[in-house]
Structure formats: structure tokens, C-alpha cells
Specification:
Elements lengths: L18 H22 L6 H13 L14 H8 L12 H17 L15 H4 L9 E5 L4 H10 L4 H11 L5 H10 L5 H8 L7 H8 L9 E5 L2 H30 L8 H5 L37 H12 L6 E4 L13 E8 L2 E7 L4 E8 L7 E6 L10 E7 L2 E6 L3 E8 L8 E2 L11 E2 L11 E7 L8 E5 L7 E6 L12 E2 L3 H10 L11 E13 L6 E11 L4 E8 L10 E9 L10 E7 L5 E7 L3 E8 L3 E4 L2 E5 L6 E7 L4 E3 L3
Parallel strand pairs: 3-7, 15-17
Antiparallel strand pairs: 1-2, 4-5, 5-6, 6-7, 8-9, 9-12, 10-11, 10-13, 13-14, 14-15, 15-16, 17-18, 18-19, 19-20, 21-22, 22-25, 23-24, 23-26, 26-27
Helix pairs in contact: 1-2, 1-4, 2-4, 3-8, 7-8, 7-9, 8-9
Length: about 675
């Protein structure tokens, strides 16, 4: 789970922060720092050792846990940066602490490729041999596998030096400009920072935005891991040796513990470290009309609303529960959202009473929205809900659930929502109905899609943005069980010879008809941290025995973490405009059907009205030939194929692209 934070304009800070500030920066930005270390570390370590080394580099960065890297002398910095302009002075508080921690992490990661002149060339650099924690016994760890684009980028990064990888990561992940990246590399003792920055320009095949998105994917996230056992046979043989030295290790460990007890660094407890962030008086509050005068239209532009925004006791209980979760508190998190205390004062979005509970909503500045709720009467326990909201915008930051129960939910709408209605996706011809919104921005109860059982309706909200920011902009969102509703979009097929089209709002006739037949498939995505779902009509096929038209749709769900999931759906001819589509393919953690995976192939068995069975296949616009092998062998030019085949015939489908390359069908 890739985390994109507001740009840090400081390339590094030479002033050592206090332990509380450094600890707060580490807790808040831990995944971000570990990802940076992982990208810089040598791929030759292997993914398992690289993951552990990345975590170790970040954990050793705390003051007192190791020697701080010395800032190079001014003359040396000037020589290494070759005219780079000095980085602006860092901000106070966590920002400067983060910059200092980032410098330490970068210095440690770069050290894994630095060898003294006398060091044997075949051995890893000394830093790679240093024992460190965390350590794992009996398991191999590695990040989730990405697609072809992620693999190609990883292979490209493995061919360059650590300094070039560091420059690439600083430019795309940390969003530093070239002089800032060059200056920071010089401070971290990188070799020839200027050359490293120049070499980093050539990485990523020229698509900087695309490469940045790939770096934030699961392929490069050492905090979201998969596990496999190590070599079990070799481990069994080693156990006898381990048992023989275990007693000696226990004695030696006791001596070391006694020797180090007097010099160990003792960090203050969480309460004293987090006290400033948990003070109700320090809460950030946005001015009521700021959303109309800022280019950053997201949760940072939400004003504090509700009739209890000045209730210090309620706000104090909410912050205290967030910082020191009491026993009995119900805690829920969407995938990728960390249930950790705030590192700095959060922003207050709402405090009021809704459906028998006092509800408080916070935004922590860039990554999460946190909901606290306590019952107004009775002995019920409070609840804390954490949700990812990084990179939210006009649509994905348009609403947050404040209350949910009895098959209905109330939402707090963004201040830029000028009109709100509800509609049923399974009734595309029925006009939207007005949705009442209170003065505090909270809606009347909205029906929720049924999480189980029949699918006879699919409620959505149709919202319209104020013309003060976007003219005539209406969009759909639906509740899939997380705090933030999911934005629904639609991409029509390209016309003859036309370029590929981009996703658009799903409010027009063709979009509503497409969603009417595919809405029930959204149930499979509930509670998985989805931020947006797009329906792409990627192909139309004339069916055998009459030529009736059928549609092929790729439904792509993008999560707040980054990885996506696709459902390939077949919409056969049917007199009902809401007849459910057939899901014929389901693939997770993929770039398919996005701007980074613009080609797709689907296939299914289909029964004609005559009773005969066929294998059907269809590909996106760049497909020029489809081939079937296995129980049936056939091929067809163009983007579709239909061939007679037994009902249960095992068939492999592949497609050839006009510009080279091939595809296999999504299963």
C-alpha cells in the first residue's frame, strides 16, 4: 500500500530532532520510508533479504539506535551537487523530523553497495552483512507480484546503481525536483549525485506519471507481503547444530543483556509522545468557504460541521480513543489503513449526534479518515473506523458515512456538493429522486445495496458539484461497506478508427444501461477498500445463428492501496435491460483495463437458441487475431471468435496484437 503524502519541500535536515518528533515521523510515514529503502537496496539481495533490510534500515533510523550520518562538508556538497540550488529550509515539527529520518534511511540503504577499496569484490558490501532486526525464521517474505509493467520496471531498476534508483524514487515518490534530489543524495554520501539524477531521467520509458504509479504498486510495497516456507529439508539438517549451541547462546545473551542494560535508549511512552496530537485545542479547522478558493479539492478543504464541534469533552474522548484504544472498543480498518495514532494534530470534519450516537470525523492530513462513535445512552462500547483516503478528489472525497444500520446509511457530504439525489441502477429509466440534506451536511437515510441474498435493486447517490468549482458535473457513488463510497464511471467502445476513450461519469443513457446489467457484480467488491469502479465496453460481438449483438465489459475496481481487480463480463442478448451479466473472468492485483493495461481478452461458453454450444471470445481494439487451442482448434481475424464446442470443452484462448505481443484470456 502505496502512500502518497503531500510534497516535502525539504530535501533533508541536518538538525537532529528529538526522540518524540522522530518517533512520530516514523510511525506516521513508516510505509513510505520502507518503500524508499526497498527501492534503493540492491536487487541482488533477493526479495526476502531486501524486505528485511528495508525494515531494518527504517527501524535503525531512530535517534540513539545507530550513528547518525554526518552531513558532508559544505565544500563537498557543493562539489557533488555541481551548482544545485540549496534546498529550502524544512518546516517545523514532523516535516523536519521526517526529512531527517529520510536522510538516515537513504544513507543506510545506499551503504549496501559501498565497498571499501580493500574489500573483496565478490563479497557483499559490509552493510549487507550486518546482523539486524527484524529477523524471520522458517519463512520467506516477498511483496505481491505485479503485472508485466511492474516486472519490466523492476528489471530496469536492477541494471542501474543504488544512487540512480534513489534519484528515481526521490523524484517520483518524494516529488523532489532535480536540485533537491541531487542535494539529498550528496548529503547521503551517494557517488556522483549529478550523474545519478541525469541517469534517472532515462528510467520509466518516458512515462513519468505511469512509472510513479508503478512504484506505488504492490510490487514495490515491502509492508504488504506474501509468505512461503524456506527450504524445509535444509532447515531440518540445521536443527541439530542449532540445538548444540542453544545453551551457549542463552548464556551469552544474558551477559550481553546485562552489559547493555545501562546504556539502552529508553523511548518515552506513547502517551507523552503523542500528547500534542491528541489535544482537542490543537485540532485543525478549515474555514467554511475555503473549498471554493483552493486548487486542492479534497478532505483538507472540508470545514468542521455539526452541533458538537466545540464539545471539548467529546473531542477529547475521541482523540484519546484514537491514541490509546481502550479495551472493548470496536475497531475496523479498510485494507491498507493503519490503526495507529496521529503523528500531528488531525483536522476536524464533523462532530454531532446521528441516530442515537455522538459521531466525530477526523482527517489526518493525507492518508486516512477516522470515525469515532459512542452511544448516547446505554452501556454500548465506542467504535473506531479507519479508512484510506489518500489522493482523494472532487468525486472520491465527496462523502463519508456517518451512520449505518438497518439497511440504510447517512452520509456527510462535501461542502462543494450542490445537489444530491438517489437512483436505482437496476431501473435505468426511472428518474433520480431528491435526497434531503441537513444544514450540517448530513443526508437523510439512503438505502444500501443488500450484501447478500437477492439483487433486486442497487441504490446509488447521484451528486452534482457546485458550479463554483466544476460546471455541470454530476457523478455516481455507491456504498460498498467502507467509510468512503465508491465512485462509478463508464468507458464506451471507441468508434471506427477513433483513439481509445477515457472513463466518463456514469450518468448518461449508455452508462446507466451498462451498469443496469453489471451492478450486482459489485457485491463481490464489498469491504475491500475500493475507491472507484469503471465499466469498459471493450467489444461487441455478433453471435452465431442469427447475429444478435452481445457486449463484453471489463469492470475494473481500483483500491485506495493501488492494486486493482478486474471482472470480465459477458452481456448476452436479453429482452430485459437489467438481465444480469455473466462474470467470465476475475483477476486480482492487475493493471488490466486501466491506462497501464489497455488490452484485454475474454472468453466463455455460450448456448445458442438452437441448443448448440459455442466457445466465444472477444478482445479489445488492438487485437487482430484470436486463436483457440485444446479440445477445439480454431482461429479468427479481428477482435472476436465463435466456434462450435462441447459444453464443457477445455479451451485455451490467446490473442495477437496489431503492434506485436500477445494476450491470454482473463479467467
Amino acid at each position: 500500500m502505496p502512500i502518497h503524502q503531500p510534497q516535502q519541500r525539504s530535501s533533508g535536515s541536518s538538525e537532529r530532532p528529538g526522540v518524540p518528533q522522530a518517533e512520530a515521523a516514523l510511525v506516521e510515514h513508516y510505509p513510505r520510508l520502507v518503500r524508499l529503502a526497498y527501492l534503493v537496496l540492491p536487487p541482488a539481495l533477493g526479495r526476502h533479504r531486501r524486505v528485511l533490510a528495508a525494515h531494518a534500515a527504517v527501524q535503525r533510523a531512530l535517534p540513539g539506535a545507530g550513528r547518525a550520518p554526518e552531513a558532508p562538508a559544505p565544500a563537498r556538497v557543493a562539489a557533488q551537487t555541481r551548482g544545485a540550488s540549496p534546498a529550502p529550509a524544512p518546516d517545523d515539527g514532523v516535516t523536519s523530523a521526517y526529512a531527517w529520518m529520510r536522510l538516515r534511511v537513504l544513507h543506510t540503504a545506499l551503504a549496501h553497495e559501498r565497498r571499501p577499496r580493500w574489500w573483496p569484490g565478490r563479497l557483499p558490501a559490509p552493510a549487507a552483512l550486518r546482523p539486524s532486526l527484524p529477523a524471520v525464521w522458517g519463512l520467506r517474505l516477498f511483496p505481491r507480484a505485479g503485472g508485466a509493467a511492474e516486472l519490466a520496471l523492476d528489471q530496469e531498476l536492477s541494471t542501474v546503481s543504488a544512487a540512480v534508483r534513489a534519484a528515481f524514487a526521490l523524484r517520483l515518490l518524494e516529488e523532489l525536483d532535480e536540485p533537491e534530489a541531487q542535494s539529498l543524495l550528496a548529503r547521503a554520501d551517494a557517488r556522483d549525485p549529478a550523474s545519478a539524477v541525469r541517469a534517472a531521467r532515462r528510467l520509466g520509458t518516458g512515462d513519468r506519471a505511469g512509472a510513479g504509479a508503478l512504484l506505488r504498486s504492490g510490487e514495490f510495497d515491502p509492508c504488504v507481503l506474501q509468505t512461503r516456507p524456506s527450504d524445509l529439508l535444509r532447515r531440518r539438517h540445521r536443527m541439530r547444530v542449532v540445538a548444540g549451541v542453544a545453551a551457549l547462546c542463552v548464556v551469552a545473551g544474558g551477559v550481553v543483556a546485562l552489559a547493555e542494560e545501562g546504556s539502552a535508549v529508553r523511548l518515552p511512552d506513547a502517551g507523552s509522545t503523542l500528547a500534542p496530537a491528541l489535544d482537542p485545542a490543537a485540532l485543525l479547522r478549515t474555514a467554511a468557504e475555503e473549498w471554493a478558493d483552493t486548487s486542492r479539492v479534497d478532505f483538507t478543504a472540508w470545514p468542521a460541521r455539526g452541533d458538537r464541534t466545540d464539545d471539548r469533552a467529546l473531542l477529547g474522548r475521541a482523540l484519546s480513543a484514537w491514541g490509546r484504544t481502550p479495551r472493548g472498543t470496536s475497531v475496523s480498518t479498510t485494507p491498507g489503513a493503519l490503526a495507529v495514532p496521529p503523528a500531528q494534530p488531525p483536522r476536524l470534519l464533523y462532530a454531532g449526534e446521528v441516530d442515537g450516537a455522538a459521531v466525530v470525523l477526523f482527517h489526518d492530513g493525507g492518508v486516512r479518515v477516522v470515525r469515532y462513535a459512542e452511544p448516547l445512552s446505554g452501556t454500548g462500547a465506542p467504535a473506531l473506523d479507519f479508512a484510506r483516503t489518500d489522493d482523494a478528489d472532487v468525486t472520491t472525497g465527496a462523502a463519508v458515512v456517518v451512520s449505518r444500520g438497518g439497511g440504510r446509511a447517512r452520509f456527510l457530504l462535501a461542502p462543494w456538493i450542490a445537489q444530491s439525489t438517489t437512483r436505482d441502477l437496476l431501473r435505468p429509466d426511472t428518474p433520480a429522486r431528491a435526497l434531503k440534506v441537513g444544514a450540517d451536511g448530513v443526508t437523510d437515510p439512503v438505502p444500501r445495496p443488500s450484501p447478500e441474498g437477492g439483487c433486486d435493486s442497487w441504490p446509488v447517490m447521484q451528486l452534482r458539484s457546485s458550479e463554483r468549482i466544476v460546471e455541470k458535473h454530476a457523478f455516481l457513488v455507491t456504498d460498498l461497506g467502507d467509510l468512503a463510497p465508491v465512485h462509478l464511471t463508464f468507458t464506451p467502445k471507441p468508434g471506427g478508427g477513433a483513439p481509445a476513450r477515457q472513463p466518463r461519469e456514469a450518468t448518461g443513457g449508455p452508462a446507466l444501461l451498462s451498469w443496469a446489467r453489471t451492478a450486482c457484480s459489485l457485491r463481490a467488491l464489498g469491504g475491500t477498500g475500493v475507491r472507484a469502479v469503471n465499466n469498459w465496453d471493450f467489444a461487441e460481438q455478433r453471435l452465431p445463428e442469427g447475429g444478435a449483438p452481445a457486449q463484453w465489459v471489463c469492470t475494473r475496481a481500483d483500491t485506495w492501496q493501488g492494486p486493482g481487480r478486474v471482472l470480465v463480463q459477458f452481456l448476452g442478448p436479453d429482452p430485459s435491460t437489467t438481465a444480469p451479466a455473466t462474470v467470465v473472468g476475475d483477476q486480482r492485483d492487475t493493471a488490466l483495463c486501466s491506462r497501464f493495461g489497455q488490452h484485454v481478452l475474454g472468453g466463455t461458453h455460450w448456448k445458442a437458441p438452437s441448443g448448440r454450444w459455442y466457445v466465444l471470445a472477444a478482445g479489445s481494439r488492438a487485437v487482430d487475431r484470436i486463436q483457440a487451442t485444446g479440445a477445439v482448434r480454431a482461429s479468427a481475424s479481428g477482435t472476436t471468435l465463435a466456434v462450435r464446442a462441447p459444453r464443457d470443452a477445455s479451451v485455451e484462448l490467446k490473442a495477437r496484437l496489431r503492434e506485436g505481443g500477445s494476450l491470454t484470456a482473463v479467467r
